[in-house]
Amino acid sequence: MQKAFGKKSIILLFIFPAFLIYTLFVIVSIVWAGYYSFFDWSGVGEKIFIGLQNYIELLSRDDVFRSTIWHTVIYTIINVLIQVFGGLLFAILLSRVTKGRVALQTLYYVPVVISSVAICQIFSKLLSVTPTGVVNQLLSVFNPALKVMEWTSNPNISLYVTAFVEGYKYLGLYMVIFYAALIGVPDELGEAARIDGASLFQEYWHVRIPYIKPVIVANCLLVLNGSLRSFEFSYLLTHGGPGNASELMTTYMYKQAFTSMKYGYGSAVAIMIVIICLIVGVLFKKITGEEAEK
Amino acid sequence: MKKKTIAMLLAAVMSVSAVLTGCGQSSGGAGTSGETAEHNAPEAQGDSSDTVPDTGERTKITALLKGTESTEQFQVFDHLLSNFCQENGLEYEIELVNDMQDYFTKLQMYINSNTLPDIYGCPNGTLSRACLDIDAMVDVGAELKRNGYYDKMNGAIIDFLTDADDGNLYLFPQGLYCEYFMYRTDLFEQAGVTDAPTTWAEFEEACQKIAATGEIPVIVGGSDAWQLMRYLSFSPWRVTGDDFITNYQAGTDSFSDNDSAKYAVELLNRLGTEGYFEPGFASVDFTSACNLFFGGTGAIFYTGSGQIGLAEEMYDEGKLGFFPVPDTEGMDNMSTNVPIHAGFAEGFNKATYDATMQAFFDYMCENFSEACYTKAQIFSPFNEDLPEGLPQLYYDTQPMFATAETAWTSWDDKLDSDVLTKIVDEQQKLAQGIVTPNDFISTCDSLISK
């Protein structure tokens, strides 16, 4: 058996089904969207070939698309901070807890298994202004003016609220990953640091966290990937609004294709999302690769 | 070699099973997406072959409807199809898609592949034109004239569904929906508002008095586009009918050139920025807004015959009153002041419209009113006497539209999808004061000139 799985041909044969499905549902879809992006098409009737017109308009005249790129960058940064660094902090705290650790771990993980739709519904009610939601009710105890504080309908903060909700959902997942990585750090390293006079903070900062750096980098990449393609939280909580205040590239693509019935233009937005994700991925790999070499 | 063969076979089986699983999910429909359902007549057994037009060998009637099993369209058509098919030894199948965008996508798929079912829900606009382009719509107006039901149909409903290009009627109404403002009589009394407002100036004055008592003047579902868009379209509709929006889309009129449109822009901005809408209105959907108002919050709410079930109890207790769309002062308003529309209308597939479907059409016309009142609790589009036993609100609101000839002009139907989407985004900013009325006007005018 081991001999069989050691052979490249056998390995390739077993990888083939997954590769086939990936090619069919991802690569072919991207190529198909690329094809549509050269047309003016409402979804019904004839497709009119317009060449690069969609891309020219997208990059030179579409202010909303440019704002969605900026919104997506901010959204991604917030999610990396909450999910990766928040997850790491929670994992560190969890590793210091001796009693009730399993229960705490489970509680923090619960949002991960709840569907995004349910999470959005819960937060819509929690953050409701009329009728007053739980959050505003609690805040009004400290300041009565906060009873009418708007969250998802406030154009200045709706994007941050949406990012927070997604961060809240997935924080538990990365906490669990980091916890597993932290408990894999050899105890001797920590002991040696303590013998050398390191404080608890210094032990974590200079020994344990650098030891799990590959895990941090991998999680950053996962969160980056997820946030750049994030759709459901923005769409369900705010529909990209008020106006376009919390519009992401993906929600904008959806609106163009399915609400505005501009399938060609929506496909052009989709291709731009693919290009931007590739660029960000390559840059990230390069930066983290250079640091690793150092 | 043997191991290689076994490995290849295993890999092939995994590939085929994975692909077949995907195919199985996409054709299964019911129970997978949670948004579609197929329903068969009680006798739906055996052969489920597709219909055969014009040969008298039809075995099934198919329908694509928007909504769920609790929505009016399904309740009416399920009732009619069930009875008709039972009498004629046929099966029927209703495909339901709840989400609006998913429904449009499904309908587009059927249009593009020219595989429309026998009956399909279709809004009067881009999609109905696409159906006409592939000659997939029966001339419903001609059929109604043939069976004598054309003259029985409410004039405003006919006006609402008449095709703008050729003046024919290709869609059958879902029902007759009239819209009006409901108000809390106790809150009006408390604020010293003695009469229901008849002009927008009176409306704002009433809002000011109600706000002074600490109550919320107007409840609005700001996250649902149509709710805010109503306030934007009331004045142009009352003053110009469908002229403004039709000409705006054609590029021959603009917000800046039309006084009623400018008035409406400023009205929506004032209502939002003066605090007459409930706090956080931009994140409240229509269902939540209904729950708020009929649960006792707010003094005024724009609603209609679709919510009579919710309003019934409070109305019977004298806690609610209603008034039509106010006049725009200083302008010549048309007499019709109650928006009337046909809901999400249905088309009949011309390619499959055989003798059986024609018989169903006649059966539907004969029994449609009964189905509307007994099954769905909505007004029938036919001008017939109301049956006994309905909530009092039916009888009291019916005189408002009984002789109406002019329909409501829905901007959803008149505007290009892209323009509509952009106006929806801008109207929220306008209502929240993020943009000024002048900014809104100049943005909206630039959408068409582009």
Write out the CATH superfamily name of chain A: MetI-like
Number of domains of chain B: 2
How large is the share of residues in beta strands of chain A?
A: under 5%
Uncertain residue ranges of chain A = none
Overall average residue pLDDT of chain B? 88
Q: Helical percent range of chain A?
A: over 70%
Instruction: Quickly count the domains of chain A.
Output: 1
Count of β-strands of chain A: 2
Over all CA atoms, what is the radius of gyration of chain B? Answer: 25 Å
Query: What is the helix fraction of residues of chain B, given as a range?
Result: 40-55%
CATH class of the largest domain in chain B: Alpha Beta
Tell me what the CATH architecture of chain A is.
Orthogonal Bundle
Question: What would you note in describing this structure?
Answer:
The complex is a heterodimer of chains A (294) and B (450). Helices cover 75% and strands 1% of the residues of chain A. With 294 residues, chain A is an all-alpha fold. Chain A has one domain: MetI-like (MetI-like fold). In chain A, strands 1-2 form a two-stranded antiparallel ribbon. In chain A, α4 packs antiparallel against α11. Chain A is globular. In chain B, α17 (417-432) runs antiparallel to α18. In chain B, the strands form two sheets. Chain B has a five-stranded mixed beta sheet. Chain B folds into two domains: 38-176 and 342-384, D-Maltodextrin-Binding Protein, domain 2 (3-Layer(aba) Sandwich); 177-340 and 408-449, 3-Layer(aba) Sandwich (D-Maltodextrin-Binding Protein, domain 2). Classes of the chains: A mainly alpha (294), B alpha/beta (450). At the A-B interface, α2 and α13 of A face α1, α3, α4 and α17 of B.
Write the layout of secondary structure elements.
The complex is a heterodimer of chains A (294) and B (450).
Chain A: H1 2-6, H2 8-36, E1 39-40, E2 48-49, H3 53-60, H4 63-96, H5 101-113, H6 116-126, H7 134-142, H8 158-183, H9 187-195, H10 200-211, H11 213-228, H12 232-238, H13 249-259, H14 263-293
Antiparallel strand pairs in A: 1-2
Helix pairs in contact in A: 2-14, 4-8, 4-11, 5-8, 6-12, 8-12, 9-10, 11-14, 13-14
Chain B: H1 2-28, E1 38-40, E2 60-66, H2 72-88, E3 91-97, H3 100-113, E4 119-121, H4 126-133, H5 140-146, H6 155-161, E5 177-184, H7 185-191, H8 200-212, E6 218-219, H9 225-240, H10 243-250, H11 259-273, H12 286-294, E7 300-304, H13 308-316, E8 320-323, E9 340-341, E10 346-348, H14 355-376, H15 392-401, H16 411-414, H17 417-432, H18 437-449
Parallel strand pairs in B: 2-3, 2-4, 6-7
Antiparallel strand pairs in B: 1-3, 4-10, 5-7, 5-8, 5-9
Helix pairs in contact in B: 2-14, 7-8, 9-11, 9-17, 11-17, 17-18
